[in-house]
Give the backbone structure.
Amino acid sequence: MRWRAGWDAIFLYGQFFYIYFIYENSNLLQVTNMVDLEKIEERNYNVLVHTDDGKYWRPEIETMPRPQFEEFQLAELKREIQFAYDNAPYYKESFDKAGVKPSDLKTLEDLAKFPFINKLTERDTQGKGSFFGLLCAVPEEDVIFMATSSGSTGVPTMSPFTQKDFDEWQDVESRWFYQTGMRKNDRYLHALNFSLYVGGPDAIGAQNLGALTIWGGTLPSERLIFVLKTYQPTVMWTSPSYAWYLGETCKKQGVDPAKDLAIRKIYVAGEPGGSIDATREAIEALWGADVYDFFGLSDIFGACAAMCDEKNGLHIAEDHIYVETVDPKTGAILEPGQMGELVYTTLRKKARPMIRFRTGDIGWFDKTPCPCGRTHGRIHITGRKDDMFIVSAVNVFPSDIEAVVRGLKGITGEYTIRIYDLKHTSHFDVTVERDEGNTAETDEEIAARVQGAIKARVGVKPTVVNVVKDGTIERATHKAHRVIDERTLNYII
Ligand SMILES: [Zn+2]
């Protein structure tokens, strides 16, 4: 139990209800009765209870029945929209311009009346009017932390947090760790970048859960392997490319990650690999560990969503983020389950509320019940709008090609994709590596097999499949760059 002074009557009621729940061994969903919509603002995560032998970090939030949960979201959304309008100059101006007022939000669907923002809005408004700019809703002295985007698609954007934003974010991280089975007796190796990166502070979520947390950062692989061998951590978070690279490097040094190390769970983020079954299963086999995909955005926080044991999509923290899916071209609302661009609205962030943020991620939102009992929906991300390319009128995502290449035998799973113009249309070639042990096939036979498998999954085949020797393709350390885009024509998606 985690006690702290200042807890109010509603949570006292929650505690009693929870004790009642344990005593009666009754249906978990009953505990959700403790939520009083009028008292949302007073929600203080530190006083909510959880049990170490339970399944959920915050059962009353994570398993709240859908109709009640959506009422809860609406109350939060109303508060956030009003707060943004009253305090962030950008929203005041953009809502007025669009002719909408916070009081126009009477249902969750009414959010569609409000204007979108995107990465450009962040970039164009930062530094204007104040240090954090026109989207920021608090004075700078209330901001205690900032991360920045990588800047891989332009000027890095700053992401500010108040103390409350930060604490609630770390509570969500504890939720994901707990969801995937991390407990107090685990040793957790946080092998993510700490420099400006929004995933860095997530180590605190593991500490708050009570796990022994090792702040690994981006140590060179030699040093990291020393840490793995000497301190025997049981859980690790890194990128999928690096998990693969590190596992292979261990093997080359005579260390079998599945037998000689204690890692039993690996979290991956930053690339789509963790949600590509073939990639995830390959990493699982290499390490003899369970792999869970996590997803975060520097614009919101470290991990906004994470897999549960079902490994079928990522539960998103819907008590903090309201999800819409829109047509990437027109912005029109799509139904949950339809493929489109994911749009997020923060429900509680104060430093910089994000209202209808177009992420550029293409995927779908699954609101059907999950067998794990959590009622929060699951996101499935297929790829970035920017990464998608069109060949013969078919939308192709690099992640689809990865899914094929990682799943085939006789090749190493490493690949590159080259996209180029030929006779005024896009073409793509794929390069794969022959597995050292594959002596049964010629290069031509491998190429034909890869070409056929890609055609079967994606709908179009690569113009050429090159087969090269094992080890030819440069191994990625953190974020892999596998796509070479040589197109010069202007393709607008
Ligand atoms: Zn689930």
Remarks:
- The longest strand covers residues 411-422.
- Confidence is low (pLDDT under 50) at residues 1-34.
